[in-house]
């Protein structure tokens, strides 16, 4: 299968404090490479501090790498830290979606702003797109008149999906996006993820500590340890026969 998303030799260094007046370089991601196909899911797992969230930020364009490339459908969208800012095809959903919504805007206004800044749609086209997106994520059309505080936690996560989906992305990066939800709501959101993937061929990059979720959803898995890929492959094969000590440790927890 032709990869949809290809990550090549991505490196990221932070300048961290090393003493009162000194700073040192801390290599948080070293030579990260992997690829994933259209309609597939890949999980990024690893122990705390391994670099998972940093990688998620690089993929979504929230931060830039120092070197390496990110390619989408064989087109370079980030090259040695220079991002193609026109690329709206990778969107990110965080753990606490409610906190990132503007409390003073209704959901309809927020989605409308998103379309106004990023598309040439007229008012009628924007309205139509907002209604279609809300129903795609299992919300009511009337919910566009609601403010964020009027939603439950599970509904807020659906709003986050609506915000991510409204620009028709090809990849969604989920950084612990279902972890904080209680089990029944988590199951509903996971079912929504799977349905959206079936219907639209979305590709997911999922950062999570929930290995049962990885087993259930992910075709592929990347295991990070101290910023390096220590294992990468089909989830079933990696989980059945883990080669690295870190994967063995994660699976035994
Ligand atoms: N802006 C920053 N400046 C300096 N160091 C940072 C910065 N962001 C992250 N780090 C460090 O980079 C390392 C990786 O952080 P990251 O959040 O990517 O790990 P993680 O695998 O997502 O961890 P967790 O599972 O605990 O969320 C950590 O040691 C962290 O302290």
Brief overview:
The chain is α/β, with parallel strands linked by helices and 253 residues long. The protein has helices at 52-60, 107-118, 123-136, 153-165, 183-200, 211-217, 235-240, 245-252, and strands at 3-17, 23-37, 41-46, 67-72, 75-79, 82-83, 90-93, 171-175, 203-207, 220-225, 228-234.
Protein described:
The protein is an alpha/beta fold. It has 2 domains: 170 residues, P-loop containing nucleotide triphosphate hydrolases (Rossmann fold), CATH 3.40.50.300; 65 residues. The protein is built from 8 helices and 11 strands. The strands form 2 sheets. Strands 7-8-9-3-10-11 form a 6-stranded mixed beta sheet, sandwiched between helices. Helix 3 packs across helix 4. The longest helix is centred in the C-terminal third of the chain and has 18 residues. The two termini are 33 Å apart. The model has no long low-confidence stretch (mean pLDDT 92). The structure holds adenosine-5'-triphosphate. The site of adenosine-5'-triphosphate has 11 residues, from strand 1 and helix 1.
Notable features of this structure?
single chain, 253 residues, alpha/beta, Rossmann fold, 6-stranded mixed β-sheet, 5-stranded antiparallel β-sheet, 34% helix, 30% strand, binds adenosine-5'-triphosphate
């Amino acid at each position: 299968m032709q990869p949809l998303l290809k990550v090549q030799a991505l490196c990221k260094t932070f300048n961290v404090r090393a003493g009162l007046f000194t700073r040192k370089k801390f290599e948080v991601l070293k030579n990260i490479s992997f690829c994933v196909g259209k309609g597939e899911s890949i999980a990024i797992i690893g122990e705390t501090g391994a670099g998972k969230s940093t990688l998620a930020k690089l993929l979504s364009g929230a931060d830039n790498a120092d070197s390496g490339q990110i390619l989408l459908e064989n087109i370079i969208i980030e090259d040695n830290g220079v991002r193609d800012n026109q690329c709206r095809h990778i969107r990110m959903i965080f753990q606490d979606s409610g906190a990132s919504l503007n409390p003073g805007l209704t959901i309809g206004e927020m989605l409308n702003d998103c379309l106004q800044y990023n598309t040439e749609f007229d008012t009628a086209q924007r309205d139509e797109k907002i209604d279609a997106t809300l129903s795609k994520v299992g919300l009511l059309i009337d919910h566009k008149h609601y403010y964020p505080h009027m939603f439950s936690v599970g509904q807020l996560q659906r709003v986050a999906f609506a915000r991510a989906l409204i620009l028709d992305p090809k990849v969604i990066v989920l950084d612990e996006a279902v972890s904080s939800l209680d089990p029944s709501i988590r199951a509903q959101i996971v079912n929504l993820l799977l349905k959206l993937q079936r219907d639209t061929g979305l590709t997911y990059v999922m950062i999570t500590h929930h290995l049962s979720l990885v087993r259930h959803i992910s075709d592929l898995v990347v295991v990070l340890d101290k910023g390096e890929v220590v294992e990468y492959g089909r989830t079933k094969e990696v989980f059945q026969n883990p080669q690295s000590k870190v994967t063995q440790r994660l699976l035994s927890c």
